[in-house]
Amino acid sequence: MRLKNSTILLLIAVIAALFFIPFLGRVHLFDWDEINFAECSREMMKLHDYTRVYIDFKPFWEKPPMFFWMQSTAMKWFGVNEFAARFPNAICGVVTLLVVFSIGRRIYDTRFGILWALAYGGSLFPNMYFKSGIIDPWFNLFTFLSLYYFILYHWKKNGFDKEGLTKPLYYYVTWSGVFMGLAILTKGQVALMVFLLVLGVYLIYNRFKIYFNWGHALLFLVISTAVLSTWYAYETITRGPWFINEFLKYQYRLFTTHDADQAGFLGYHYIVLLVGCFPASILAIPSFFKSNYSSRFDKDFKKWMLILFWVVTVLFTIVQSRIIHYSSLAWFPVTFLAAYSVYKWQRQEAVYKKYVGILLAILGGIISLLILGVAVIGLKVRLLAPYVDDVFARANMEADVHWAGWEGIVGLLLVVALIVGIKKLKQNQFYRAAYTLFGAMAIVVFLASAIIVPKVERYSQGASIDFFIARQGEDCYVHCLGFKSYGDLFYTMKEKPVNPNSYDEQWLISGDIDKPVYFVTKIDREQNYKFPQLKELYRKNGFVFLKREPPAK
């Protein structure tokens, strides 16, 4: 029985919600990005200021406000907590799968739409990031939709005569402009940079044999600017250009410099995508090569996806900072190409390559062993601690975390799925192989987020977060010594400081403080803060907790 498209859309939405929404609040937010962004949203609500972003109640010009509007809205609905901070991305996950299904169905057919949605929702990092509280999922979706509507415009303008392109040209231009404006409002002008680079490469590849109307280009810019003006213009008119200028200068620095802990080797993003987009990354490999095309649209859309992949990966290889999610926009072309391979194999329009099964077994086996290894190490972690050289890491391993041993079943599930999936590939049952591999990975991420991640978090930051939470409602200062954290802001529910001296570390350590100060440092850095006025309260799992009382009057 063939299901109606509306029924399929409903099923995708329900299944996606069941995978992405449960357990959002099961584990604390992670330093830095998750806590950083959640704190920005909390302070946005606290200060009743929704046009300027703050961190520690000081202007924070690194990001535009779109995502913080989403988070602060969720916090009004669900409270200031982990669930609310991650809820916008869970909704993004549902929307993204509906979008790729709809696009895939429109360009190819319903089966392809299902495969693309399955590949996106059933790959490692794409699935994981829909359970996070960081900006990139929405940014990626808006940027991709802007490009997609431009592709539709190009097809109609240049005589592709794709079935279903019944709207006037300005309709596609308008929506492309709207989504570009939203993308820039979410993460900055890098969205426009990627868009223009993709368009430029496509033009060069086609020897400039495509045409667009300059009036439509102007309309695109006007619409994008109108969307941006909800923040850029309003902030500039009401408060002056200072904040926007600082924001733009930061965006420039982001592309030309890197933090000491954000450098990486040249092939960083390709390794990240290979592992992070598993199993789609492996299934996509054959589609990077020449194919037999069934239509003009088939060939052209694949060309756009390949260009998008190379533009994103090359651009963020050039960028000095190497951060995992910088190349996450490439998840769209990677999952498309994975669906494309399976689709072509099943229709006998391409020949299945045996190396795909070999690579799936190798990389999938490594990932399975890593998951199994976490559970095994968890059982023996205290025995292994003495052999770890890093003092802080060794102390982390002393956290009191209960492992039953059965947590490794998550890794075993992936092993079974790999065996079955690879067998189905050999039997030319390509759709069943895709359902097995992607479905299993979605289940593995779901179970890991509920069972394994909360335990791992207790080692890395659990003791410090517990300490911050215990300070909620207490009239005091809390400060981290020798390391950067946003946990002391979000998890203490910090109020806006009255005394400006509280931002001065030296004043907190030795000045004439007006209320108690709690300090948190790490065990490998405590020697730098051996002051008689700082009394140690206790130490736990690599963190040292200190307190200074105000001088007697």
TrEMBL record:
Task: State the UniProt keywords alphabetically.
Answer: Cell membrane, Glycosyltransferase, Membrane, Transferase, Transmembrane, Transmembrane helix
A GO cellular component annotated for this chain's UniProt record is: plasma membrane
Q: Which domain of life is it from?
A: Bacteria
Q: Which residues cross the membrane?
A: 7-25, 83-103, 138-155, 175-205, 217-234, 268-289, 301-318, 324-343, 355-381, 401-422, 434-453
- What is the membrane topology noted in the UniProt record heading this document? Multi-pass membrane protein
Q: Does the keyword Transmembrane helix apply?
A: yes
Biological processes annotated in GO = lipopolysaccharide biosynthetic process; response to iron(III) ion
MF GO annotations: pentosyltransferase activity
State whether keyword Cell division applies.
Answer: no
The record, for InterPro entries, names:
LipidA_mod_glycosyltrf_83, RgtA/B/C-like
Q: What is this protein called?
A: Glycosyltransferase RgtA/B/C/D-like domain-containing protein
